[in-house]
Amino acid sequence: MKAVNKMSLGELAAFVCAHLRKHGIAAVLSGGACVSIYTDNRYQSFDLDFIENIPTSRKRIKHVLVEIGFVEKDRYFVHPATDFFLDFPAGPLAVGSEPVREIQEIAFPTGRLALLSPTDCVKDRLAAYYHWNDRQCLAQALLVAEMKEIDLKEIQRWSSKENKSTEFQFIREEFVKASRKRHRS
Amino acid sequence: MLEPILGSRNKERILLYLHVRKEGYAREISRFFKTDLAPIQKQLERLENGGVLYSRNAGRTRLFGLNPRYPFLGELRTLLDRVLTFFPPDERDRLVKVRTRPRRKGKPL
Prior knowledge:
Distance between the termini of chain A: 34 Å
CATH class of chain B: Mainly Alpha
Order of helices and strands of chain A: HEHEHEEEEEEEHHHH
Number of helices of chain A: 7
Structural class of chain B: alpha+beta
Strand order of the largest sheet of chain B: 1-3-2
Strand content of chain B: 5-15%
Largest interface: A-B, 12 and 9 residues
Number of domains of chain A: 2
Oligomer: heterodimer
CATH class of the largest domain in chain A: Alpha Beta
CATH architecture of chain B: Orthogonal Bundle
Strand order of the largest sheet of chain A: 1-2-5-4-3
CATH topology of chain B: Arc Repressor Mutant, subunit A
Number of strands of chain A: 9
């Protein structure tokens, strides 16, 4: 097994995810780390947000993570050999007001990683853009659309359910352009 | 009214306050309900850790509000609206009827 200090974000996330799964904890990677994975690190995140499908006690997570060298510091889990850190934000696993229905799995040499699909990853970033007006998150969503196939119709439907149809119309063309870029490359 | 469900009277106070006033800070909420500051701060932190609230800094003040990304926000607001209908009218007015439009500095009442 590769040493923790040599692991990429994806490899480390898969390593943690597989270890948690071994102990019966089903956690799904969410947030900026998914953007990092889908964009081959064109956006770099150090924060690995895992959301549990079925809530587990903090004490149990702490106990399981200690086995692979992560210790709790403030509300995060850190490892002496890496700058990446783990967070377990409160669930449920959702994008906006909807539950996540399809969970993606990617195999890494360090294990299998459960994470948001590219389409849900875009929704997750857009939720931050819609509600906090965070343009960095819009840029991240567009980066994912440039690199991965996303379901724009589904994002339009979801935006409408979030009462953000007008906002979506303003950015729709940018997503179309991002998809075209992907097809060209 | 929601204390049996939420397990804390202060949690209910905080949620009602932020539902109506959109944003608020710990001291303001504790003053409004004439209660101690520390338990309000503790519950604000718990609700933020649970994803129900967000916080942001405005100068040296930490403002809290209901998190628009909380998946059950719509249902929570419906419940809080229902709770408000059971409030005595004067209490509800005290919470709801507050001047929110700007006032120029030095303007006489």
